[in-house]
Predict the structure.
Amino acid sequence: MNRGDGSVEAPLVDAWQRARGRRMRPLQIPGHKYRFADGADVLGAELLGALVRDDLPLQGGADDNAFTGRYLERAEALWASSVGSDHCRFLVGGSSQGNIASLTAAGGPGLRVAVDRTSHRSALAGLVVSGSIPEWVYPVIHPEFGLPLGVAAESLAGLSGDVVALFVTSPTYVGTMTGVRELADRCHADDRTLIVDQAWGAHLGFMPGWGALEQGADIVTTSVHKALMGYSQTAVVAVRGARIDSVRLDRAVDLTGTTSPSATLLASIDATRAVMEMHGASALAAAIEATSRMRSRLRPVRGLVVVDEAELGQPCDPLKLTLWLPRTGVDGLELAALLWERGHGVEAADADSIVMTLSMLDEPEFCAEMTDLLLVLIERLRGDARVPAPAALWQVVPDVVMSPREAFFAPRRRIRLADAVGEVSAEQFCPYPPGVPLLAPGERITPDVVRDIALAGRIGRVAYCSDPTLESVEIVSG
Ligand SMILES: Cc1ncc(COP(=O)(O)O)c(C=O)c1O
């Protein structure tokens, strides 16, 4: 493989390429027997050929059945050393798997864990799996924009003394960053573990001073497929220091993972790390500069707010472009729809805001072109300034009746959502994006939440509930 200067080790990538070069005809999995790899005109080729062409399992593929080559182990050690971690695990179940594994490693049945209520739904899954009891904490919400600014150390003041860990997200979906260093100091002073969901910030681990691990977090999950270049579903969970037992983390990863991981997916994590070691510093600098130029050109637009460090006075993900629109009269959903028609899907949008993710593969010319397009579309959609309608999900303060795990396993019955006020939900309603539950299992259903679910359903997808029409809900039957 041409690695530019050829000097960086990439054991899984090499193993993947060697295995492909062997032209195997296995008497074991995979069932496609690599027949699509060489373009053979075999059963299903017209449908499966391009899709399955690059599939290669780790076991009996890139490595032998006994994992004699230990390529995955070596690749994980290289990632760990690259991001300043003592131990990490590659994941093919996304950051969702990493969050579940983190909570399972740091929490446990009956243990109290403080969790930001605006966390991704996978944190709830981690609470169900681990049996930890959440003590919700809330992020600071911008008074005008209604967007989350991260969890402040002061919000830990009221926590019960027996809370063993804190789970927060940084960067948030909209790009704001939590003061991880301060939280870590506070947690450690109270003998608590700090878990950070850094799903959106895989690049930050390669930027000196920016990564949550470097700032003192004990365990950090990061999606390789979001800000970096790995296959969809790829992520890494990494630990630093002695607060997390690595063996326990390994068991938690194994508990939640497949026994047949794709070497192709895993090798894309290894390749990403190698690319970052070779070219990351300059490529990130260029991408950050291009994104910053986008912001500088958009900032003067009348009424437009560019939600970034300059506006908020706190660190933000330098590769996120979040715009707040009410003063322009532009509807974020309409803007997103016009961008989608042109092939430029955005990360998330609601009436007030639009969130875009840039990466090292967005060249300055593309960024400039997108800025031109945004400038044109904003003027096309411009209207009278309007009163903001902040998304409810960042501001949910639930009435918690039982733990997510108790509610998940409780007897249940289905009733109309409109008739469910006062009942305890057995399930979650989760606008996606961003995947933050409006209603979680174990929470009492209020008139506000019924209204907010209906509203969210009108403007986008509300996921992970049993009735996609949102007409009914499973409640805990008493
Ligand atoms: C903050 C946050 N954490 C975790 C996840 C889950 O990541 P993945 O899709 O890699 O499982 C997401 C997904 O969007 C997210 O926004």
Q: What stands out?
A: The longest helix spans residues 263-298.
